[in-house]
Amino acid sequence: TSEPCRPPKAMLRTFIFASLSACALGGWDPESTLTMQADIHHVQEYHAEPQREVQKFILLTTARSGSTWLSSIFHGHPQMSFHLKECLADQSSMESCNADWGVPSLLQTTQSLNAPLLNILPAFFQTPSNLTWKSHVGFKWMTQQRLSQDTESFNDAIQFMKDQNVKLIALRRQDPLRRCLSLYDMDLRKNASLAVHKFTTDNSDWGKTKIAVPTEYMHWCLDWYETNDRIINKITSQIEAVHVFYKDLCTNPQPVLDKIHNYLHIKMPIRAGNTDFQKIHEANSMYDLMSNWAEVRENLLHTHHASKILEFENKPECGTV
């Protein structure tokens, strides 16, 4: 039988929210007592310092790059207030983010998603004044959400990040072939009202069987990701950022989380813990992932995407430690 999610009482009294976070990230491990005590020490140091302004940060990324998993880690961290929804995805998500944590919104009236970004962004960085241990607040921003639509929105985003000293985490997935396969699979499942992330409780064959991706879709998708990757490049050429990569997260996540921890200057370590997420589409070759890969491959080899085929088609995305 597994240990109940019940830390020692003395630690519970000292730092209850850290204990509960550990439970949420995979259950209480009695052997982790020393680790948790070290974490408590980090936060006690933070409380001993003069109260500082909460650090704003953004997870900037593209679809199917591991951002949901990383967001769940941020959301479960005791010193972070992190929105789980994509705040700029649609009107409902924006309003949900504005209402997170029970903070009265800065927006006195319902703001349109198409309003100037300088009017929208401040509301995403509010935190409850009574949660004094929350030293960082952030949200996930997909590049296709306003940043690729018009120059004014892009410039407003840059201005806001500079004026507010926003720290930027650029999460990138370098394998364009598997990224497009995953995006097509997600679109199919969304249209069928099915889950787009697989968890350990799912014993189905989803992600283990080949699928057929239309050639036209692969063309569009590779071009689309090129455009959105250029947006990340353009933003990070103007705003200081830490770059992290999907292949490193799925191979050995802790060094990546340590890198983010050092960049954000947050007292309490960021740990992966146990995860309920399952990685899908793990086969080493595109021939084992797509039933029509030979046909798609032949077509793409006659385009400017040919180099991507040669580099990634038979290259395992997640390595070994």
N-to-C CA distance: 30 Å
> Whole-number radius of gyration?
21 Å
Main sheet overview: 5 strands, parallel
Measured by DSSP, the beta-strand proportion falls in 5-15%
Question: From N to C, what is the helix and strand string?
Answer: HHHEHEHHEHEHHEHHHH
Question: Which descriptor suits the 3D outline?
Answer: globular
What fraction, in percent, of the residue positions are helical?
A: 40-55%
Q: What is the residue-mean pLDDT, rounded to a whole number?
A: 84
- Determine the structural class based on helices, strands and strand pairing: alpha/beta
Number of strands: 5
What is the strand arrangement across the widest sheet?
A: 2-3-1-4-5
User: Low-confidence spans: pLDDT under 50, at least 5 residues?
Assistant: 1-37
Instruction: Tell me the number of helical segments per DSSP (H or I, 4 or more residues long).
Output: 13
Write a concise keyword list for the protein shown above.
single chain; 321 residues; alpha/beta; five-stranded parallel beta sheet; 13 helices; globular; disordered N terminus
Describe this structure in words.
The chain is an alpha/beta fold and 321 residues long. 43% of the residues lie in helices and 9% in strands. The chain is built from 13 helices and 5 strands. It has a 5-stranded parallel β-sheet with strand order 2-3-1-4-5, sandwiched between helices. Helix 8 (176-191) crosses helix 9. It starts with 8 loop residues before the first helix and ends in a 9-residue tail after the last helix. The model is unreliable at 1-37 (pLDDT under 50).
